[in-house]
Design a protein that fits this description.
alpha/beta; Rossmann fold; 12 helices; five-stranded parallel sheet; globular; two-stranded antiparallel ribbon
Length: about 300
């Protein structure tokens, strides 16, 4: 009789544990609502400038928009113009609302690395007329870190699994490439430009030895990620027209960590938020968050709004 009672107790308990486990596994990958930084309406209530402005995208999966539900929902396109199904709180908050003579071109390509981005600037971004001001959106370096997902030996621009000692010359080369890239971009705009470069969002900053549940361990991943982001910040500081957009600080939760309440990235106000469909691609919610972060940075920093352009 005692054995039967024990079974009656343990079976429901087991079912509950299985259900919790299944919900936890599923919810790591699914977000139930949008969450991100607020965008103040005030900067978007008046025209910033009547100048001709060219919005340029250069970079990898993020600027390309891989993982967005539609082309309209890529963060670059959301920056430019509100999508037809825009959230009520973001309606009227886009660059086209405040820059009536805005045009755009996006050179970003999926799975491209920083070497390829330098070539893109050299070969595709032409010198603009003197009456055109540039706003350049740049995401670079992330693919350098994550490829080739541990499936092959680490090498420059495909560093996953490298040791810190191995990575030192590659980090130095990234510094040199980035300096050249930023200088080349500025030279393409004799009428002036601003470059908004994202730092790199990569899960190794929180989990160190294992950057993803789907990837092999990477002992030095966190340190190498930090070194790459340091390069971005340090090189940006040498150019007065370059601003770092801190998406690494904003995208604080990843699909495999959305239930890890013991981690510093856990968001107690919204434990369901989860931004990445895979390690190097935001999902639709992620692109909204990145859009908001860039929009806030541009509104805060741009000379077009502050009235300092010629």
């Amino acid at each position: 009789m005692a054995e039967l009672s024990s079974r009656r107790f343990y079976l429901p308990a087991l079912c509950v544990l299985v259900a919790i486990g299944a919900w936890t596994y599923h919810s790591r990958f699914v977000s139930i609502r949008i969450d991100g930084p607020e965008v103040d309406a005030k900067p978007f209530q008046t025209i910033w400038s009547d100048r001709k402005v060219l919005l340029v995208g250069i970079g990898d999966n993020i600027t390309f928009g891989l993982g967005a539900n539609s082309n309209e929902h890529s963060f670059f396109n959301r920056l430019r113009k509100n999508p037809s199904d825009e959230l009520d709180e973001l309606k009227g908050k886009s660059l086209s609302e405040v820059l009536p003579n805005l045009t755009s071109i996006n050179f970003a390509s999926s799975d491209s690395n920083s070497k390829q981005h330098t070539k893109t600037v050299e070969q595709s971004l032409s010198v603009q007329p003197a009456d055109v001001f540039g706003i350049v959106i740049l995401t670079t370096g992330g693919i350098d870190l994550v490829h080739s997902y541990g499936r092959s030996a680490p090498r420059e621009c495909a560093m996953y699994g490298a040791t810190m000692a191995q990575s030192q010359p590659w980090i130095a080369s990234f510094r040199e490439r980035l300096s050249i890239m930023l200088q080349l971009i500025s030279e393409r705009f004799p009428g002036g430009c601003e470059i908004y470069i994202a730092d790199i969002c990569f899960p190794s900053s929180e989990i160190g030895e294992k950057a993803s549940i789907d990837l092999p361990p990477w002992k030095d991943g966190a340190a190498i990620h930090a070194a790459y982001n340091s390069v971005i910040h340090e090189v940006a500081q040498t150019h007065s027209n370059v601003h770092v957009v801190p998406i690494n600080d904003v995208l604080l939760s990843y699909k495999m960590l959305a239930r890890h309440f013991w981690k510093t990235i856990y968001n107690w106000s919204d434990p369901n938020h989860s931004f990445f469909t895979k390690i190097d691609n935001p999902n639709d919610q992620g692109y909204d968050v990145i859009r908001r972060t860039f929009l806030n940075a541009i509104a805060d920093k741009t000379e077009l709004r502050l009235g300092n352009t010629k």
